[in-house]
Write a structure and sequence with these properties.
With 352 residues, this protein is an all-alpha fold. It has a two-stranded antiparallel sheet with strand order 1-2. α3 crosses α9 and α8 packs across α9. It is globular.
Length: 352
């Protein structure tokens, strides 16, 4: 018998990796399946209770609200698949916008100078989170909670120190503003539909993240680190580098969101962004990411953001009492999450 050859009686069932998996079973095993079912349920619900929800103009508003969440939900989902959290993501968006605005205004330079300085500083914060996590071995919850508090204080302290108020000065009349606005905050109109450029950024990030997760070695590293860092390190996965890159991904998305915030409104309030980190995590969890890591998808995070966008705007279109806004919002998100968990359990039972 040739060395390494399988035994003569080895059949197709000797290695489950060689078995053909039916398409339906593969579909049921996808992490975003439950969120898709939840999105359909939320869409049908608001279609019935809010007449204006199905209007084309309303749908474009829903997409815009979803994109502002989804841009950040994508890298947050990848980070959660890698087994970590980032509680500083919300205020980092504001920090990015503040740096761009204040650097441009104080230097009386082209706004692109502030934009590039903001990119470097924001990425440095991501590196700081990743390096501190790997060097101290502290939980990412503690590390990024500390970063969150520091950035919150820096945002307010530097803004008041430089501008004398809690908001930045307008940079709308500065050179380069129009081109930066076209990249980060423009919109396109097709009939009754207005497409914000953030929707294109969102789609691009989802496509890039999906390609990384499913087609690259780095995607395998992300799943391996989230499944068990010690086991991943034992088989040669660069755990430290992977974690740092994941935090830099969150920082890069925060930079994009921060520039959109700045060039949409010309000025930035230093207190914005607090609490948004929870929204990004919620979108990722609804999309199928496990809090324990090692499981999830970028597409699922996009669907989770879409559910959040439909819920937040659907409540407005339904003309419900705004005093109950947070209650209905929380209830819809909870129902979507429960439905997601139920579908996942059914899928797991089917694939056994």
């Amino acid at each position: 018998m040739t060395a390494g050859a399988p035994p003569a009686d080895a059949g197709k069932g000797s290695d489950e990796r060689l078995l053909h998996t039916p398409p339906l079973r593969r579909l049921l095993g996808r992490p975003e399946l439950g969120s898709v079912v939840g999105a359909v349920a939320v869409f049908i619900f608001f279609s019935l209770v809010a007449d204006s929800f199905l209007q084309t103009s309303s749908f474009s508003t829903v997409l815009y609200a979803s994109s502002t969440i989804g841009i950040m939900a994508v890298p947050v989902a990848l980070l959660m698949i890698g087994g970590e959290f980032d509680l500083s993501a919300g205020v980092l968006v504001t920090s990015s916008a503040l740096i761009s605005s204040m650097v441009s205004y104080q230097m009386t330079a082209n706004v692109w100078v502030g934009v590039l300085v903001s990119l470097l500083v924001t990425l440095a914060v991501g590196v700081f989170n990743g390096v501190l996590l790997t060097r101290t071995k502290l939980p990412s919850f503690i590390i990024t909670l500390g970063t969150f508090l520091m950035l919150t204080g820096l945002n307010l302290g530097f803004t008041k120190l430089i501008s004398g108020t809690v908001s930045t000065k307008s940079i709308a009349d500065m050179e380069g503003f129009a081109s930066a606005k076209a990249l980060f905050a423009s919109e396109f109109t097709f009939g009754d539909v207005t497409i914000k450029v953030t929707i294109l950024w969102w789609i691009g990030l989802v496509a890039l993240a999906t390609w990384i997760l499913l087609r690259t070695r780095f995607g395998n590293w992300i799943f391996a680190v989230g499944g068990g860092p010690d086991a991943a390190r034992a088989v040669g996965v660069p755990v430290t580098r992977t974690r740092i890159f994941l935090y830099m991904g969150v920082a890069f998305a925060a930079w994009i969101s921060g520039q959109h915030l700045l060039f949409s409104f010309d000025v930035v309030q230093s207190g914005e962004g607090v609490g948004n980190e929870l929204i990004y995590i919620i979108a990722a969890v609804i999309g199928g990411c496990l809090i324990t890591g090692g499981y999830g998808s970028a597409i699922g995070s996009a669907v989770g953001a879409f559910i959040f966008g439909m819920t937040s705007k659907g409540i407005v279109y339904a003309e419900w009492n705004p005093d109950w806004f947070k209650f209905f919002l929380g209830a819809m998100l909870l129902l979507a999450t429960l439905l997601n968990a139920w579908v996942r359990k059914r899928a797991e039972a089917t694939t056994r």
